[in-house]
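Example record

The entry below shows one chain as it appears in the dataset: sequence first, then C-alpha cells.
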Amino acid sequence: QFNIMSASTGIDSITNTLSTILLRKNIIPTPLSPITNNIASAVLTILYVKLVLEIGTLIRVKFGVPELSRKFVHFAACSIVMFWPLFDVSHWGWRLNVTVPVVMSLRLLYKGAILKDPEDEDVQSMSRTSSPSELLYGPLQMTLIMCYVGLTQFMTFTGIAIMASLVGDGTAALVGIQYGQHKYYRMVMMGGSGSSLSGGGEKSVEGSVGCVVGTVGGMILFSYVCNVGYGDVIGDGKEDAVGRWRMLIAYGCVAAVVEATSLRNWDNFLLAVAMEVSVKHLPTLLL
C-alpha cells in the first residue's frame, strides 16, 4: 500500500499546507481542519485550470496559432504538481489533488469519443489539427498520467521526474519549431504505413537538447517548490553536487531519447513509463 508518510519523500509532510500558509500570512485566525484544507486546495486547482483554459483560448484567438495555446495548456498541466504541498496528508482528502485530472479525463473522453465537435474550444486549444479524436491521445494520456502520479507518486521524486519529462516534451516541440536547424528523421513503425502507431516524424537536434534542458529544469523547479529532495535517488550516500547534476542530466537524456523515438501520439505514456523505470534503476547503473 502506498505510504504517503514514507521517509523517501524527504519532507515534513504538513509544513507548507494551505492552512499553514494562510495562518502565516494572518489571513485566517485558526487552522483549517485537514479535510477543509484539502477541499480548499482542490478548489484552487480547479480555479487554476479554469484560468489556464481561458488563457489558452485567448492565446489561440489572438495569435491564431493553435500550437501556442496547446503548449501553454501542456506546460500549465505539468505545473499542477506545484499545488501538492498545499494538501494535508494527515487526512485521506489529500487524494483530492487528482480532482482536476479525473474530471478532465472524463471531459476529454466525452468530447473526443462522443461529442466529436471540431469547433469545441477544448478541441481547438488542445489538438494540432482540430480533430476531436486527438483529445483521446496526448491530452487524455496527460490527464491519466496526472491521476496516476497524484495517487501513487504523490510528493515523491518519481512523480516529479515524470511530470518534468512532460515539460521536456513540450520544450522540445517549441525549441524545434523555433530554432531547429539540424534535422533528423525518426521512424518507429508498428504495423503498416497507415497504422495509427506509426511513429515517424521530423525531429531536430536543438529540440532534443531542449527536451533535456526542459526536463532538468522541471525537476529542479518542482523539487524546490514541493520541497522534495532528489538526494535519496543518487545512491550510496553520494549526494555531492556533481553526482546530483550527473543524475539529473541522465534523466533528461532518457526523456530526450524517448521523446525522439516514441510512437506518434504515445509519447506522454512512454515518457511516464521510462522515467519511472529510470528513477528506480538508473542510479545503480551510473554510481
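Notes for this example: The first strand starts at residue 183 and ends at 186. The longest helix spans residues 34-63.
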